[in-house]
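Technical note accompanying the year-one report. For the benefit of new consortium partners, we illustrate the data format agreed upon in the data management plan: each record pairs a sequence with a structure-token string. No post-processing was applied to the example shown here.
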Amino acid sequence: MNASAKRSIFMVGLIFLIFFVISLVTNVISAINPDVGQSFGLSLTLVGLLAFSFFIAYGVMSIPAGMLLERFREKPVMIAAFSLAVAGAMLISLVPSYPVFLLSLFLVGSGMAALQVAINPLLRVSGGEEHFAFNSVMAQLIFGSASFLSPFIYSYFVRNIGKAGGEGKPLIGLMSQLVPANLPWVSVYWVFAVILVAMVLMLATVRFPPVIKKEEERAGAWATHKALFKNKVVLLYFLGIFTYVGTEQGVSFWISKFLKIYHGYDPQTIGARRVALFWLLMTVGGILGLVLLKLFDSRKVLVGFAVAAIVFLSLALFGPGPLALVMFPLMGFAASVMWPIIFSLALNSVSSHHGSFSGILCTGIIGGALVPPIVGALGDAFGLRQGMFFLYLTLGYILSIGFWAKPLITNETISDKKRKLALATEAAGKG
């Protein structure tokens, strides 16, 4: 194996690890929000602002992060991003209150936004353009596995801190000293702070292999971004990322609360497990997606999964409690391939400025900031079930992408590979 291949394998592995940590820190919000709401006496709208504070950071940081990458390169920006997330995790750990938590989530989100901007073009460069959809689904698989773990970390601490017999369990005694007795959920941010510090130290000591981007991979100046925003294709895919993240967070964020309101399920146990199962099935769906993307055009895969998501959402909202316990997690399965397919279709639909375009796409993650509070506000006015009807709009847009997308480069399938091999063999025979 040559040095170039080794560098690519190392970079792809590092990117996958960063995806894992981003997911671990990001998606615990879906599990803890009922406890946070109860701890601070919040309405559904104010609970929804937790997601807003985290994901609005993507709107603020994504494009500047792309510019910083051009000036300082990947390693310094990644270290700075993780350091910012450490500051956010420590802030809520040391000063737990609702206003502080909003600021904390914004700081953590800012760090995660910068990381997303850095690692997506790197994954495309390191793994190869024709394998980008496949590697993106693999990253989503890893993302889902970490999201599956987050609710269990939360559940472990809240069910043992301050409870009889809990002191003898690992870390419970320590956390009992660090967090207020009435706010056991804060313990997860102490855990995250340690993990994030470990990432800072690892990146500081690891020697990055040189990854040379083509000119089209680089993030440009503000003028480049303004020019891209005038491109209809760019705007359409921006909305694609916006609606996907809005759907993902609009479902996962409200699962536990919905199950408590309409079916009386305990958010610290059953609710947390359903959120975890949502992310686990996203991982399972990612495995199936890896296979499907080697067999079918990614646009057809996207249409199939979007239709399934609409069916699962309908059954979750209108079915009895036991059916809702199954259908909400299945939404994670249906969402599993949406992000990587939309992102890869987007980058493969323009011929240049992929770095800048990636920053714009990551800005679309603000969908996760706006959709949960919209659902919450509608929930306060009409009921949470009716509020979640808004997700039919976002899913409808995702479905439409499978019909109008016209990428310059399509994902390579097994039949494509066979056809290329046959053509090469035929050409060699003629030669």
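Partners are asked to follow this layout when depositing records. The radius of gyration is 22 Å.
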